[in-house]
């Protein structure tokens, strides 16, 4: 792994390893293996409890890591505890906008999450087969991340993964992941006849075609 790897990514991997240990022992559902755990604290601490310096953000292509079989089921959950009708985010230019999942699907992703990277690749490469693409909200940043840093990391992700067609937004608050993606990344918020639903984890193209064709 690169020496400039992000603290948040490292913590996410540690938590994922713990999750997979629990999964293998039958404590947790296999569903958890299809996505990355959120990271509530974007800072690191030294042994004496003081905050360590925030490392430089750097994108890494992790699409070959933590490979799982994508979920084949359309298995959303009702969005009962989160308001996805008023998601405050920033554009790359720094403009504050409010997204509403009733108007357009919103996909919450973290740049360090392998499941998110593969999902974005899948949606981008098959966008002609989808009725619509979700807007992307980039979350999972460490505390005090500046917008320019987040934009640069996302631009490198777009370049390395050859992504096309996405409208990108940013939620820099480290708590945004827990708020909007409490199960983990990636999380899609969208509306169907039952109201606003959330879909967590990697899924097959047929699932994405189903939910994004509504």
From TrEMBL:
The record ties this protein, via SUPFAM superfamilies, to:
Thioredoxin-like
Q: Does the keyword Signal apply?
A: yes
Q: Does the keyword Signal apply?
A: yes
Keyword set, alphabetical order: Signal
Would you indicate the residue range of the signal peptide?
1-39
Query: What's the protein called, per UniProt?
Result: Thioredoxin domain-containing protein
Organism, by scientific name, is: Alicyclobacillus dauci
């Amino acid at each position: 792994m690169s020496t400039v790897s992000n603290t948040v990514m490292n913590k996410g991997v540690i938590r994922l390893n713990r999750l997979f240990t629990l999964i293998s022992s039958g404590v947790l559902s296999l569903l958890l293996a299809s996505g990355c755990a959120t990271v509530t604290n974007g800072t690191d601490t030294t042994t004496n409890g003081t905050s360590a310096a925030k490392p430089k953000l750097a994108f890494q292509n992790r699409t070959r890591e933590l490979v799982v079989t994508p979920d084949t089921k359309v298995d959303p959950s009702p969005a009962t505890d989160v308001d996805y009708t008023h998601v405050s985010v920033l554009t790359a230019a720094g403009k504050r906008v409010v997204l509403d999942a009733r108007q357009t699907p919103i996909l919450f992703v973290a740049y360090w999450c392998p499941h998110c990277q593969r999902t974005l690749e899948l949606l981008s490469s098959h966008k002609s087969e989808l009725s619509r693409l979700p807007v992307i909200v980039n979350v999972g940043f460490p505390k005090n991340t500046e917008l320019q840093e987040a934009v640069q990391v996302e631009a490198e992700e777009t370049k390395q993964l050859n992504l096309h067609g996405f409208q990108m937004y940013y939620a820099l608050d480290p708590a945004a992941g827990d708020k909007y993606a409490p199960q983990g990344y990636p999380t899609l918020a969208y509306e169907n006849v039952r109201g606003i639903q959330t879909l967590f984890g990697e899924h097959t193209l047929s699932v994405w075609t189903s939910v994004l064709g509504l």
